[in-house]
Design a protein that fits this description.
- The protein is mainly alpha-helical.
- It has one domain.
- The chain is built from four helices and two strands.
- The chain has a two-stranded antiparallel sheet.
- A hairpin with a 5-residue loop joins strand 1 and strand 2.
- Helix 1 packs antiparallel against helix 2, helix 1 packs parallel to helix 3 and helix 2 packs antiparallel against helix 3.
- The longest helix is centred in the last third of the chain and has 34 residues.
- The chain is elongated.
Length: about 170
């Protein structure tokens, strides 16, 4: 079976898209600033892993605080690259010349929103790590888990529904 060639289209970026993109970059820079500032206040050993209830169950050197921001940055760069190639994406519907513009636009909006979401999630994780490191962790760990799940799944489901409507 011959692979279908998807159309290569120039997708217009709206004002909202520019705002979300800008917020993503600002959040990424803020994450790095936060990590660099709190690093100087951390003890030599910090929590590096948490149980589902939010209790620390793994520890490492304080330099590991940079690992989360580094992983986030690599993901951010990768998503920024792939965002420019919507014809590479997997879609829940067949891409045709008639629906390609709407499908690509929806997919790019989803990636853009996920970039912002990923930075927020890593920010929450780094903040929780910092609080736990200096001994002020509280009982909000379950809320962190719910917030992270919501931040990931709500945009994905929203954009999948939009994609289905655009087919």
């Amino acid at each position: 079976m011959e692979k279908q060639q998807r159309p290569l289209l120039k997708i217009e970026i709206t004002g909202t898209d520019k705002i979300i993109e800008g917020l993503s970059y600002i959040a990424l820079v803020a994450l790095w600033i936060f990590v660099c500032v709190v690093y100087t206040k951390l003890p030599e050993t910090i929590p590096t892993h948490f149980t589902g209830s939010g209790k620390a169950d793994g520890y490492g050197d304080n330099e590991t605080i940079f690992l989360g921001a580094g992983i986030c940055t690599v993901m951010f760069i990768g998503m920024s690259f792939i965002q420019r190639k919507p014809h590479w994406f997997n879609f829940p519907v067949e891409i045709t010349p008639e629906n390609a513009q709407k499908q690509y636009t929806t997919a790019m909006k989803m990636i853009r929103m996920l970039k912002l979401t990923i930075v927020i999630i890593f920010g929450l994780i780094e903040f929780h790590t910092y609080k736990s490191s200096i001994g002020i962790a509280d009982d909000t760990s379950q809320l962190y888990i719910l917030a992270i799940l919501g931040l990931v799944y709500i945009p994905i489901f929203y954009f999948l529904i939009q994609s289905s409507k655009n087919s």
